[in-house]
């Protein structure tokens, strides 16, 4: 299948300068980040300030060569990359649901709970609509054993 | 900023042959789809069958030229594209959280509640972990006025 070519719609300005500064998960961070949407896409933000949360799709441009199985910060086992949130995946497209704190002018948004490092390309922004995303009766595979740890570390 | 090049990790086999056959939202469909992951990425699926739901990131290869503001099936107003789920977006990367029905062999997964048409490239698969995605105190902007319609149409 041919390669797919995408143009970033903007860039993330973040206090995390490199991977070692960024948290394992965005929800572990209370830092503020700014999403700068490029001029040519600004009209696509019409009325976004009515939403309390947005979904950001971003490209982990500093991810390492991908592995198909990896360990995670949560335990010492090898897991299939598609059962993890590791940025070192075949296509390092990351997704975060974040609170939209404010809109500044026509093309800047401030958010928090984001793990992205400074300069990360933004590929898409979507509305967070729980009716479409929230599921019941969920089984979490290997992650069930570590979920308690995640909650404990969250501030 | 330079273009970003991605290689699909698989392909979706779906009963929807074209856009007019596909539902507006995956949750409106009870049809079964098969995700075929290419051989070279199959090892990344290790232990995925332990998860009841997965997140699929796919590329809407039949999306039309994008618009920055668009109407939706839900009302007659123009909305910023980044406040909608329209596939006609600058980067037509779509996200669905779907129930994982079964794993067939080492590289095929069956799912439902998916709006993708046959032949859609799969870019990524992620675990669905409510602790990372589910938010409280949500405001839905213009979508609040149409949410009742969505629920009514869902089977």
Q: How would you portray this structure in words?
A:
Chain A is mainly β and 155 residues long. Chain A has a single domain, classed as Elongation Factor Tu (Ef-tu), domain 3 (Beta Barrel). Chain A has two helices and nine strands. In chain A, the strands form two sheets. A six-stranded antiparallel barrel of chain A has the order 2-3-8-7-4-9. In chain A, strands 5-6 form a two-stranded antiparallel ribbon. The longest helix of chain A has 7 residues, at 147-153. The first copy, chain A, is globular, with a radius of gyration of 16 Å. The termini of chain A are far apart. Chains A and B meet through strand 1, strand 4, strand 6, strand 7 and strand 9 of A and strand 1, strand 4, strand 6, strand 7 and strand 9 of B. Strand 1 (4-6) of chain A pairs antiparallel with strand 1 (4-6) of chain B.
Please outline what is shown here.
The structure is a homodimer of 155-residue chains. Chain A is 7% helix and 35% strand.
């Amino acid at each position: 299948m041919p390669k797919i070519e995408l143009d970033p719609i903007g860039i993330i300005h973040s206090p995390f300068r490199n991977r070692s500064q960024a948290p394992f998960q965005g929800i572990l961070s209370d830092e503020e980040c700014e999403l700068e949407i490029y001029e040519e896409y600004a009209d696509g933000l019409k009325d976004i300030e009515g939403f309390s949360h947005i979904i950001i799709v971003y490209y982990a441009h500093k991810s390492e060569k991908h592995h198909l199985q990896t360990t995670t910060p949560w335990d010492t086992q090898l897991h299939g990359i598609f059962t993890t949130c590791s940025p070192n995946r075949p296509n390092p497209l990351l997704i975060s649901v974040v609170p939209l704190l404010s809109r500044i002018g026509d093309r800047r948004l401030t958010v928090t709970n984001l793990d992205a490092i400074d300069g990360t390309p933004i590929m898409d922004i979507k509305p967070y609509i729980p009716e479409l995303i929230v599921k019941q009766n969920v089984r979490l595979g290997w992650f069930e054993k570590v979920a308690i740890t995640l909650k404990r570390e969250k501030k």
